[in-house]
Each structure stands twice: as C-alpha cells, then as structure tokens.
Amino acid sequence: MLKNKLDVNRRQFLASGALIAASSFMPKISLAKEDTKSTKSAKVVIVGGGYGGVSAARQLRKLNPDLSITIIDKNPFFVSCPMSNLYLGDFYEFGNLCFPYEPLKAKYNIDFINVKVTDIDLDKRVVITPYDRISYDFLILSPGISYDIDQSQKDFFIKYPPAFKPGGEHLYLKRLLEGFDGGKIVISVPSYPYRCPPAPYERAAIILNYLTKRKLKAHLYFIDANERPIINSEGFMKAYYELYKGYADYITGATVKEIDTVNNIVKTTNGDFKFDLANIIPPMKASRIIEKIGLLEKGQKWVEVDTFTFETKIPNVFVIGDSARSFLPKSGFGANMQGKIVANLITERITGKKLKQEELLMVLCYSMVSDKEAIMSETSFKIDKAKNIITPIHREDNTRRESTVKRYHEWAKGLWREMFG
C-alpha cells in the first residue's frame, strides 16, 4: 500500500519559499536610466529559446516593429517540457512538443542563431560563441536550469536521465520505460524549489498508469524530500490511493544520500531502495552560463533579480525563467509572463513611453493523474509596487476530471500559438 505522512495542506506551495512577500527576500536594485535609443538602432539579444526567451522576443516584436531581436540557443528547435510527461505515458506524440525556430524569422523577423554561448562580456556588452561575438544593448538571459550534481554522478544521470531538460532525455527515458518488463522502479523528488512544482508527482502517476495498463509485475518507490506533494497534495494523494493502490510506496521527508551504481541501490535518509529502473530527479540550480559570467552569488543556486523587473545588478541585463529567484514558480507559464514583463520594460526604456503594467498575474498548473483524468491549480499574484508587496491567492481543483484534460491541452496549445504563431 502507499505509505505517507500526509497532512493535506493546500498552502504548502505558497509556503515553500518561492511565493512570499517580495520585500522579504529580494534585493533592492536601482533601475538603469532610460535608454533613449531608437528601436532601429537598439539591439536585444536573448540567450535561451525556451518559454521565457521566445515569449520575450514575441512581445518585443509586437511592441517594436523595427527592433533588432536575436535569440541564441544551442538546440535547433524548441521542445516543450510542459506536456512531456504525457509523452512518457503514451498520451501525447513527441513531435507535437517540438517547434522549429525558423518561423520566428520568416513571420516576425526575429533572428535565431543555433549555437552554444560560451561566455558573455558584461562590461563590453558582447555575447561570445565559438564562431562569433554578438553585441547587445539589452540582454535577456533565459537559459533554464542545471542539475546540481557532482561530476562523479554524471555517468549515472546519463544512464538514467532525470528528463527535466527538454529533448533527448525524455526520448531516452521513454525507451527505458518501454524496455521495462517488471521489477522495481525508484523515482525521487528533490527539495523545493525545482523546475515545475507538480511535474514529479504527475510523472509518478503517469508511470503508475503505464504499469497498471500493461499489468506489469512492478512496484514503484516514490521518494520525496518534501513532506507532501508541493502542489495539489489532495488530488495527487487520492489518485495514488484510489487508482494505483498496491503498486507504490510513497516515502516522504527522504533525501537521496548516495546512489550505488554497482548494486542498483538508492540510499536515502529514510532507507535504501533497490531498483531495476530509476528516475532520480536531482536538485537544480541556475544554468552554468549564469554562474560562469558572475551573476550567481557565492553559495546561491538562483540569481537575485529585482522583484518586479527581473533586472540583475548589471543595468539592462535581465534573468528570467528558472534561473531567477522569483515570486513566480519555476514553470513555462511563469517564464512566459516574465518574458512579457521584461519586454515591456525594455520598450519603455527605448521609447521613453510608459506602458500599462499588469497588476494581477495568474499561473495555471495542470497535471494528468491517469490516461483520462487531470487535476489543476491556479495562483494569482496581486502586484503592489508602491508597497513592494506581492499577494498570492492559491486555488486548487483536486477532483479528477476528463474536462480538465481538455483544458490542459488547450492551455498548452494556446501558449505555443502565442509563441510561434
């Protein structure tokens, strides 16, 4: 049966350290003076073509028809992490998660360079690649996350990918799952914050659905460093109990200490677990390029940015998405909104014209718990810049519904249309 220490608390997500009053943990950063360059002469470079980067580029183009906008990303096309768990469960085609960057140039005159950024000279305002040096007036960094692991663990995470970065990791994890014909599976969740709060819990449910549909003789050990699911606790726990009883043990408050790769054993603070297939989701931190260029303070995992503008200590350099310490959750939807906020601010600085800023932001999170049902949550953030306060209001629908699955798909497709047209 499922083991847990569950005390359902719908406010866990809000109390987890990411969603609190802005003034309590964010640095005061002076805004740069308005840059009065014309949109024809100003250059915006965006490092990272994920949800944050592409959303920023599209909003910039919407507001500035003549602005020079360049996205740089090492991947040749966009692959969505949101909805990727559905691919693992055979609910969604991988190809439907992929979008080429070429239409951004053809439709919106947004340049795309498919190359890895090796360095950035913040003093000279130059992005450095193996082949070129790209100058900028405004820099938006949206490079995503890095796994916070030792080099000694690297081979294990190649063999058993976490699949919390887009692309090949999901393809290989799916191959491992398809080759699994029974035995023990271990999935682990790191302490919050990490990318996409409900994703590990959705993945556990989807893999359990995969096992039960195929009637495999298997057992899943779900090891959670947190005391309960970070979000939609009630909905996930009901799904585990009512749909997958007998297939899993849920072990809470357990941190992975060591992985014995010879004997296939995960050693935790709450026991050791042997596995035939593992999906160890490690702790996460800001992207390595962020650390390399000196924007990450010593001992910190996430970049300190201005609460409302996402500007770093360097004027006109912004960090959005998962690498930033923000009141918004580390999610595709959160990065999408951050990209728009920064695009509006850059437009104000270029044109000298004030734009109406949103005073209420909303983040939606959907999670499949079976092949036919989903749950969801929404968090609204009321912005009061004058008082330097952000007030979150969190609501959850923990009832499993087929109609929520339809909304889940519509939500994702709506975001992709907004980004790629």
From TrEMBL:
Enumerate the Gene3D superfamilies for this protein.
FAD/NAD(P)-binding domain, Flavocytochrome c sulphide dehydrogenase, flavin-binding domain
Q: Domain (FAD/NAD(P)-binding): give its ranges.
A: 43-144
Please report a single Pfam family linked to this protein.
Pyr_redox_2
Q: Which GO terms describe its molecular function?
A: flavin adenine dinucleotide binding; oxidoreductase activity
Task: Report the residue ranges that make up the Flavocytochrome c sulphide dehydrogenase flavin-binding domain in this protein.
Answer: 361-420
Q: Which PROSITE patterns match?
A: TAT
Q: Which residues form the Sulfide dehydrogenase [flavocytochrome c] flavoprotein chain central domain?
A: 176-282
For this protein, the record's InterPro entries field holds:
FAD/NAD-bd_sf, FAD/NAD-binding_dom, FCSD_central, FlavoCytC_S_DH_flav-bd, FlavoCytC_S_DH_flav-bd_sf, SQRD, TAT_signal
Please report the name of this protein according to its UniProt entry: Putative sulfide dehydrogenase
Q: What lineage is on file?
A: Bacteria, Pseudomonadati, Aquificota, Aquificia, Aquificales
